[in-house]
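input
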Amino acid sequence: MQRIANFINYLSAEKGASPHTIQAYQNDLRQLAAFLADDATPDQVDWGAVRKTHLVDYAVYLREREYSTSTVARKLASVRSFFHFLAAEGVCREDPSLSLTAPRVARRLPHVLSVDQVAQLLAQPLRLPRGVALRDALMFHLVFDGGIHVGDVVAMDVSDADPESGRLSYGATDEQRRMVLLGEKAATALREYVQHLRPEFLPAGADEPALFVNENGNRFTDAGFGILASRHAEAKRDRAILELLYATGMRASELVALNEKDVNLAAGYVRCLGKGRKERIIPVHQSAIEILELYLQQARPQLLDKTSTDDGALFLNNRGGRLTRQGLWLIIKRRAKDCGLQDQVSPHTLRHSFATHMLNNKAELRAVQKLLGHANITTTQIYTHLSREHIHTVYDESHPRAKQIDGETSHE
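output
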């Protein structure tokens, strides 16, 4: 396996390949080595003795395993890259893969969400019933802005609240009683919550004295408040993730690799490392900046595990560590499912949607290429097909002789 290890080091050190790409090459080449070794061990493969017939047999073997056409094409591309390297290193006198053909992969157009669907997906993490939203906002305001201990907030009864004046009292004994006067906005929220929304949480005939009650109609506990705060932190993180993916068109792997220092909120840009470790600077619009600011100020500190070292990762999982690609995938699928788009969204969907919507709104192809980090503009051109579909739709809906009335062409 030393030849494979040398090639992997070359990909990492000289080509700047991503960990995901390196893992794919390792898997593909180890499978090739196992096939060529036959009854021997993969370490005993003589790479200099491999001929084109061996590689053709391997291609047939892959098809017999019923791999998809795209998977076979990728595995054979790994083989070609490997033998190009071996030939350059002098291991092979001739490159046996030079005339090795891969199956033609049909180029599928990427799936793209409509602008309305994107808006629906972005709003989903923070979408809550009004009663829940007001209750949670009041509790967080008292704890995080007012500095009142969680235990005192969850111990408040309805009798401790004067909705008309916006006053709340708290404390276990008369000597410990404190009074807090809410601001106008919070006082208005308290009145609406107590008079109209709190009763919605209570079962018929319930006599629960607690001011803040959960969805079961019971008083919140300290632990219940902690769970609630964690859920809100995750929701703000998820909103920031979705917003940034659509604002920049970044790849999933690029997003999870971001550190806090890579985001400049004041200047309105994010710096990321793409394929081949090529750096690019991507502008971020004001709405996305505000969502990111909210996440960094309110959510990230709650997600950060106080017992672990903060490595500076921008997006954290619920254990305080760096979010992984798999974790990102689960977040996107869950949020898509919650708004009825589960069959239409993958981590790459927002990237496709970003590119298509930019072109639909008259962005130059070269500019979109730079934003996406494509080395070759032909990769970006696939989105022009989607843009043309949009143009055809607009044409069919707008041109008087393209409209159909009762199945007949309209005549003006």
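quick obs: Strands lie at 161-162, 167-170, 178-181, 263-264, 269-273, 279-283, 404-405, 408-409.
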